[in-house]
């Protein structure tokens, strides 16, 4: 340690100068944060987990989110929170014999779910596969030619809503869970954005909001669900919810309605008279990556 | 001895440490200024990342973890590897090691700070950090391995803070540390050190959808590589401490650590070889990530230079460490240590995290290259870690040598007190 000398006062001055410089450099370095904190509110910061919100609290949250959408996007939207219905468990099946790979489903998803326009995001990826092989290694997502191409078949992949979902297991904060009707959802206001679920999912079903989604006001779908297609905040994970804002109200998923070939079959697995049950009982059904034991609610089948 | 209450002496102790942390020679100021500058560049890049989103990184929905998680993984290994000083000191009663074991514990503290930093910058919503605090947020324990990691990493940090803090404080007030206040914690910290890297390996190896990580060998590999990077860093650090301070470091600890390193560096290469054999001899889907890593696939080769550099560095350090000359020539040993450190940094970082994502689960080959912003943030966090390490050593060592103590402080008139013999 230095002994006290006449040099000491100068040393103190230098230290004060250094500390001042350091503090202002720090303030300057962190200045970009102002743009970020502008969008944060105390209410948003303290918002509780979806399952802990009372009805009144949820009403307030929804009002705030609708106002935020108006402020940020200029659009008037209605956010609802439809609940799962008793006696309903959703299942989805896709007929690989008739899918032509037109990607209308992916496009419908893009619009229905208010995806970022710049990235052309969608919850569905369509693989162009080679006839005679089920090796995804030989598949291609980036095809750009008339479909169906000779010698190819097509396999759309989206969230499989697994009963034994690896994604919900790994989430450290329970921001994602399985609903009683079989749909795996995310509380976009609880997710911390660690992306562990994205690493865990074997079906590439999850997406991260790498930036704040950009959508022109007039293209925004105003019929929104709290757990589904409302515009997601930056920095959180999102996923396919079988369009629960539609399906829980008796409508069909947007991807199914857009399909020109009728390859998609959606319905209630608990209803013995449903079309989905008929398909599962009579067709050659298979499950993607069945060996992983994820127990999906999404099935593929062939006509023959 | 002084019988005053800790309520008086403890604030005094903290004050002296703080004062010591801001006082030093020009080399100290220069070093700290450089580190501060790098840390500020990192802080600025992080502020931009928060404002504009993680689109400014090279990550994507295909490769959703990158340089941050790579460095996090390596940092956990470094923290766990520091225990390689505790084991000889306390389990084998190595007296030379006993004198310097605190350096290892301080390294563990700095390394854990680095890890926590990398986790924070990897979060999309760090403002929601409170969601992960047990009992305050919704802690998905015991199902999520990430919650285990939160527990073991913070626990390890607290353990080491307690051990070092208690020992230094005791020394400062001139009291013999009471064994029951630190020995149980020291032994606990040995198991805990293994646990941090095991849990971190389980984060990856438990994912069935990622064949590259889904290997039971991953946790043992992590431990082996931790026992490479930890000792390699400490060997160099002890030599720096020896030169830059009056703290006495004998050759004994360095000799012990290089013996450890000679074994672990080979063990690490052996395990890498086992993984490579299994992947390539079996072939098929399980080899696709390995093929991409080592040779590139579908015309994409981003990781090939990384992994071969890692192998070259690891082999180089293994060869150097086993040269008879390395036993006497410290320069040779230092080169071996730096090579081992850099080799493991690549292998446990870019070489382990990225191939888990390439090809993706739908077998798309999307490459990842870190952006400038990611490098800035990464450098900033490491600079912060070095600041923690420097300051902690700077305040702890004078207490250990007896230069700084309560007794000495209260009798400033008295010249040199008799230097205490090492315990």
Identify the strand order in the major beta sheet of chain A.
10-2-12-11
Distance between the termini of chain B: 18 Å
CATH class placement of chain B: Mainly Alpha
Any idea what the shape of chain B is? globular
Q: Structural class, from helix and strand content of chain B?
A: mainly alpha
Number of separate helices of chain A: 10
Largest sheet of chain B: none
The radius of gyration of chain A is 25 Å
State the separation between the terminal residues of chain A, measured CA to CA: 87 Å
Q: How many helices of chain B?
A: 15
Any idea what the radius of gyration of chain B is? 23 Å
Strand content of chain A: 15-25%
Helix amount of chain A, in percent?
25-40%
Overall shape of chain A: it is globular
Q: Quick gist of this model?
A:
Chain A has 304 residues and is an alpha+beta fold. Chain A has helices at 8-29, 33-37, 42-46, 55-73, 104-112, 166-170, 196-200, 244-247, 254-258, 275-282, and strands at residues 78-80, 90-95, 125-130, 152-157, 176-178, 184-186, 206-208, 223-225, 237-239, 264-268, 284-286, 298-302. Chain A is globular and about 90 Å long.
């Amino acid at each position: 340690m230095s002994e006290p000398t006449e040099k000491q006062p100068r040393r103190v001055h230098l230290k004060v100068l250094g500390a001042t410089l350091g503090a202002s450099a720090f303030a300057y370095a962190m200045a970009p944060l102002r743009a970020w904190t502008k969008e944060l509110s105390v209410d948003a910061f303290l918002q509780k987990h979806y399952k802990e919100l009372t009805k009144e609290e949820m009403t307030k949250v929804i009002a705030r989110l609708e106002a935020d959408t108006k402020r940020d996007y200029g659009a008037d939207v209605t956010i609802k929170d439809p609940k799962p219905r008793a006696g309903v468990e959703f299942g989805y099946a896709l007929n690989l014999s008739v899918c032509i790979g037109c990607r209308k489903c992916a496009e419908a998803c893009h619009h229905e779910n208010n995806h970022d326009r710049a990235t052309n995001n969608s919850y569905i990826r369509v693989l162009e596969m080679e006839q005679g092989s089920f090796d995804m290694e030989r598949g291609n997502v980036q095809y750009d030619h008339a479909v169906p191409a000779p010698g190819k078949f097509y396999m759309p992949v989206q969230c499989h809503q697994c009963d034994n979902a690896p994604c919900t297991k790994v989430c450290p904060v329970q921001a994602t869970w399985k609903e009683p009707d079989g749909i795996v959802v995310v509380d976009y206001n609880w997710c911390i954005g660690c992306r562990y679920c994205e690493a865990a999912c074997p079906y590439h079903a999850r997406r991260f909001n790498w930036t704040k989604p950009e959508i022109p006001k007039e293209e925004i779908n105003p019929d929104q669900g709290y757990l589904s297609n409302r515009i997601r905040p930056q920095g959180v994970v999102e996923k396919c919810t079988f369009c629960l804002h539609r399906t829980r109200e008796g409508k069909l998923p947007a991807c199914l309605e857009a399909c020109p070939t009728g390859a998609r079959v959606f319905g209630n697995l608990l209803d013995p008279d449903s079309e989905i049950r008929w398909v599962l009982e009579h067709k050659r059904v298979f499950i993607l990556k069945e060996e992983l034991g994820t127990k999906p609610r999404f099935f593929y089948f062939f006509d023959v | 001895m002084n019988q005053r209450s800790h309520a008086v002496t403890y604030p005094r102790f903290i004050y002296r440490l703080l004062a010591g942390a801001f006082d030093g020679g020009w080399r100290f100021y220069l070093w700290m200024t450089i580190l501060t500058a790098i840390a500020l560049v990192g802080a600025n890049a992080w502020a931009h990342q928060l404002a504009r989103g993680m689109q400014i990184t090279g990550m994507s929905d295909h490769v959703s973890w990158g340089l941050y998680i790579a460095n996090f993984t390596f940092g956990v290994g470094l923290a766990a590897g520091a225990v390689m000083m505790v084991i000889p000191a306390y389990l084998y009663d190595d007296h030379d090691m006993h004198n310097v074991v605190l350096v290892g514990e301080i390294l563990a503290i700095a390394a854990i700070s680095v890890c926590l930093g990398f986790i924070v910058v990897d979060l999309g919503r760090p403002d929601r950090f409170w969601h992960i605090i047990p009992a305050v947020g919704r802690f998905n324990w015991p199902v999520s391995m990430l919650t285990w990691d939160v527990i073991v990493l913070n626990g390890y940090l607290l353990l080491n803070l307690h051990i070092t803090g208690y020992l230094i404080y005791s020394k400062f007030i001139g009291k013999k540390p009471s064994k029951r206040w630190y020995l149980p914690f020291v032994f606990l910290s040995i198991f805990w050190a293994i646990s941090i890297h095991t849990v971190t390996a389980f984060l990856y190896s438990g994912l069935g959808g990622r064949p590259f990580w889904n290997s039971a060998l991953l946790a043992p590999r992590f431990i082996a590589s931790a026992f490479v990077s930890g000792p390699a860093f400490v060997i160099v650090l002890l030599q720096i401490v020896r030169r830059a301070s009056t703290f006495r470091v004998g050759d004994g600890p360095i000799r012990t650590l290089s013996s450890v390193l000679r074994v672990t560096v080979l063990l690490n290469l052996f395990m890498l070889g086992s993984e490579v054999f299994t992947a390539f001899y079996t072939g098929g889907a399980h080899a696709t990530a390995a093929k991409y890593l080592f040779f590139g696939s579908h015309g994409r080769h981003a990781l090939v230079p990384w992994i071969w550099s890692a192998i070259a560095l690891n082999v180089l350090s293994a060869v150097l460490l086993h040269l008879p000359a390395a036993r006497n020539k410290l320069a040779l040993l230092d080169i071996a240590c730096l090579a081992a450190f850099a080799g493991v940094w690549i292998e446990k970082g870019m070489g382990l995290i990225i191939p888990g994502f390439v090809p993706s689960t739908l077998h798309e080959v999307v490459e990842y290259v870190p952006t400038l912003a990611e490098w800035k943030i990464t450098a900033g966090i490491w600079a912060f870690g070095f600041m923690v390490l420097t300051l902690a050593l700077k305040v702890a060592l004078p207490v250990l040598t007896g230069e700084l103590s309560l007794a000495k402080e209260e009798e400033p008139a008295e010249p040199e007190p008799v230097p205490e013999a090492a315990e």
